Amino acid sequence: MSQRATVLLHPDFRVGEIDRRLFASFVEHLGRAVYTGIYEPGHGSADEHGFRRDVADLTRELGVSMVRYPGGNFVSNYVWEDAVGPVEDRLPFIDLAWRTIEPNTVGTDEFLQWAEREGIEPMMAVNLGTRGVAAAAALVEYCNGEAGSRWADLRIANGREKPYAVKLWCLGNEMDGPWQIGHKDADEYGKLAAEAGKAMRLVDPSIELVVCGSSSMMMDTFGSWEQTVLEHTWDVVDHVSMHAYYEELDGDRASFLGSGTAMDRFIRRVEASADAVAARRRSDKVITISFDEWNVWYLQSRFVGEKNLPLQRDAPRIIEDVYSALDAVVVGDLLVTLLNHADRVPVACLAQLVNVIAPIMTEPGGPAWRQPTFHPFATTARLARGTALDLRVSGPSMATTAHGEVPAVTAAATLDGPDVAVFLVNRSAEPVEVELSHPGVTLALGRGVQVTADHEPAVDGPEHAAAVAERHVSEVDGPASATGSTVVTLAPESWTALPGTLTRA
What is the pLDDT of residues 305-348, one digit of tens each? Predict the structure, then answer.
């Protein structure tokens, strides 16, 4: 007999509006994310600017709304001025983060113009590791300034008259991490971020600023870092960042499937830290979260560590994780968690877009293809519109080593006029019969998408990715229209998305 769970769903119970920036991604100068990723002159699909059209088409299909650039750890050793102007005059340098010779062929203008052509909002990061206030303010002026000032006029001289109007800016990256070039303690970083943010806003008062939060919930300084940094930057910033990656360790499948619970706890604790600062300051300001790095990443079990990387050039293959259908189910569950925090998480970046722990893979001179994790992200970005509903889920739990007892079923729903989308996850190894309880409301669910977990190791290449999709990603029909109650049966270890309509009876 199937397990049973109940999800209470009503259009009057709401979390908050969904910001389209929740479906963002990330392109860092790391491995093959840029070179032979989004950019490969001479490729059969390359446009006149050298960017791969096949990758751009898949990015559009993925539903990416915004892309963060240029890092990541890379940004903390980056001199942006060296990557603007005539390409033939640019000098390569050693990227200390990933021990790669960076040719500087793609820089600020190339990236921002690619994003503009593809209808993607850019999210820029400034270097607060080895640089500081003046360089950060100059980059804002270069990107957003009008003619008549030094850095804006340099942009114009480089062929771009119209300002880029970049809205969202990161004040450095993972500055709490000892691995970061220019790592600082919370007090030192908070003071620098406050001054950099102040200067950047004096250049362009319309921008939004993201201050570095903790690189993970497991950092020794977690919590105290957020409070110290926000005390310094409270009047300047809009968002605090979060970064988190999840993986299956030592065959602990249940804990991996419960990763969404860990993400939920992390978000709630960052919210509490920010709200504690607001309370101490007697402030009504609400700091929201930019979850600007998240994904499944086999960091502990597959990555050799940046210190063990040899010095390389020519876009080396670094952190090219190959994903399974199990990974895709977890990604879908993490998206459910993000939707359920839409009131406090307006920005989230799947890290990264191409080749580096990415939903899209390429081969130099060859094809581009979808990894299994592509499918839940693309489906959620397409269906999740309007308002996130506040659901009440009751049902069985499952024991995990890493997270304790976690819900076996998670759910999210969105409403845009009469259009509804319901997202359901069964983390358990048994089928679950879910009753969607919607008193006084008629729910009609149509044809959706289901991803079921596999038990086979992932294998690199487009043929394997296509075979996994054929076996584990399928279209499913929703139940018939009903008033008051609808029943959906979930396959074991599965993620399901069902679109439909929700109307008052």
Answer: 888 888 999 989 999 999 999 999 999 999 999 999 999 999 99
What token pair was written down for 274? 């920010």
Choose the CATH number for 3-10+389-504 among 2.30.40.10, 2.60.120.10, 2.60.40.1180, 3.40.50.300: 2.60.40.1180
Q: How far is CA 454 from the centre of its chain?
A: 24
CATH 3.20.20.80 at 19-385, yes or no: yes
| Cα 497 from Cα 473, distance rounded (Å) | 11
Q: Domain coordinates of the chain in residue numbers? A: 3-10+389-504, 19-385
Which amino acid is present at 298?
Y
Residue-wise pLDDT tens digits, 112-171:
999 999 999 999 999 999 999 999 999 999 999 999 999 999 999 999 999 999 999 999
The token pair that represents 89 in the structure block: 């005059």
Closest CA to 411 of 430, 429, 435, 431: 435
User: Active-site residues: which are they?
Assistant: 174, 293
Q: What is the pTM of this model?
A: 0.97
Q: 385, 421 in Cβ contact below 8 A? A: yes
The DSSP code sequence of 227-249 is: HHHHHHHTTT-SEEEEEEEE---
Residue with tokens 């009440």: 392
